[in-house]
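Q: What would this chain look like folded?
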Amino acid sequence: MSANIPELRHRPLLVCVGGAHSSCGKTTLAGQLLKRLKGRKNGRWGAVKYTQTAFYTSLSDAVDTMPQSDKDTTRLLSAGAEQVQWIQSPRHELEDILRIALDKLWDMDGILVEGNSPVEHIDFDVVVFVFGEDPLKIKDSAKKALEKASVLILREFPPDINHLPYVPLSCGVKTCNVRTYGGQWNACTADEAKDSLDSCTEVIMDEIARKELENTLMELSRDGRIPCELARKAAEDLGISYNKVGEAANNLKIRITSCELGCF
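A: My prediction, written as structure tokens:
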């Protein structure tokens, strides 16, 4: 008898890309991610760009900025985001306008938000933090994003991050070191630099896939159990192997029941 397969409550995966300071490479990395995310099975992604202002608050669609090719919002749209919302707001007025922006994109498979302050108001599934050339240079508004980071993107300096200030030391935090040329990774065309940035994108993509699977299993489980048929469907929907689903379920202490095919 087939298991009663429930309809999962739709919730896009939420990813935040923050950084130590302006011009540290957040938009470049966000663009790389969107290009990769667009090619996945769950490839409908929206993006939100946050720009801090002193006095006024506004929310606009990136389509309005398309004639201005130098705009970060245009770069995100060109990279693969289906829609991009641009928030301009003082930090103390960000929460309400951020929730409105996310609501406009809620039918997407995922939403990528660029900026540090959004982590103070939203529980993101994955937070990526980009260091600049000087690992000791970090603005105060970036420290909260760093504290919540699950992936750290470092520049070409010694990878011993334990002695850097403000760096989270949780064993679950992943790191990747980007090789830079002439101090400009966003302007670099060297193949080696591109390969290095691609490898960091791969680290983040792995973390995104892990979190997607974890969220799906938690949503499907009832009293710590998932019928085998639901686990197989989750693997097929996410485009991953049964073994990966089984490993994730074990890590979450979720038991897969009624498995007659030996998939798990």
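The longest helix spans residues 191-220.
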